[in-house]
Amino acid sequence: MRKGEQTKEYILQKAAQLFNERGYYGASMSDIMAVTGMEKGGIYNHFKSKDDLAVQAYEYAVDLMRQKFAAAIKGKYHAVDRLQAVVVVFREITDGSPLTGGCPVVNTAVHTSHTHPRLHASAQETMIEWQDFIRRLAQLGIDRQQLKPDTDVEMLTTLLISTLEGAIMLTQLHQDDSYMDRAIAHLTDYLQSLALPES
Amino acid sequence: MRKGEQTKEYILQKAAQLFNERGYYGASMSDIMAVTGMEKGGIYNHFKSKDDLAVQAYEYAVDLMRQKFAAAIKGKYHAVDRLQAVVVVFREITDGSPLTGGCPVVNTAVHTSHTHPRLHASAQETMIEWQDFIRRLAQLGIDRQQLKPDTDVEMLTTLLISTLEGAIMLTQLHQDDSYMDRAIAHLTDYLQSLALPES
Lengths: 199, 199
Description:
The structure is a homodimer. By secondary structure, chain A is an all-alpha fold. Helices cover 74% and strands 0% of the residues of chain A. Chain A is built from nine helices and no strands.
């Protein structure tokens, strides 16, 4: 990677973290200068505006999540194992991976609702991507006769995301992992109840 | 109510709505002047600062929710009926009641995390209050032999709030009630599975 690209990635990483915690309106250019240790001019060498930086930083964060989801299911064949691996990626959000401050999609959705249509649309697109990802894992599990044929794929998708995102919020708010632990225990039972016995 | 109190309540109502949608940093005093149709001086007759207004507007929003929860369980005796009534109050958030823009507690939690410790602590306190409320309804249901004696009260509380708050987020993000419908269908089955048959 060239020096310029390294610097750009460094800024994206710091800004993604800052925006995830503080939101677009809660993070000023001064804050970004403080966390990067860079002058305004140095940042604007790589980004046209705060807006441009925020949009790219969001995409950077989502890409970190995308890589985590891909790595999590790699080498797993059974739909229950894959969906459990997805659950683990959500759990790791509360451990600060890939970013501290909670889920970048939900944070961006809440932070930019009514105030930043472009970023809000990005959050919406990411959530649609995540839903499609879970839906496909479930559907493939049905096709491969790993999950019961009457598994309600939409229900599974909604429950997985709702319960995990809600539990991330509670765990973040109270700084207490037990919310996430309970949510995962429930979802584990739920996923296992959908599994077909090995034939 | 005296004229001054009426004006104060009018400002609180408008500001609570605005802060719920835009967050503390996304809503400026100019925005508050625009939604109230009042001059800055008129607003500052009733509130010391934007901060003071935001804190009181949040308490106003939480009080609307508190009244809704109290009204929802009124006249109901069975724990399952009461918990279902609580679920309906959460559903109504997605219908814009008492405020449009989603759950004021989660919105405030996300909007003020890392940026406004006072408001963030308020969101935390409200969530603790809601958890206690659900926990007490469940525990009373066990004591009255309406719910199975081995009902896991903490699990029930976490699942109810996580699933509903997550589903509110999805329904808000996609402007699609089906997320909330599925979450409620699942929670209804769950609550009914905890009920003891009438003796």
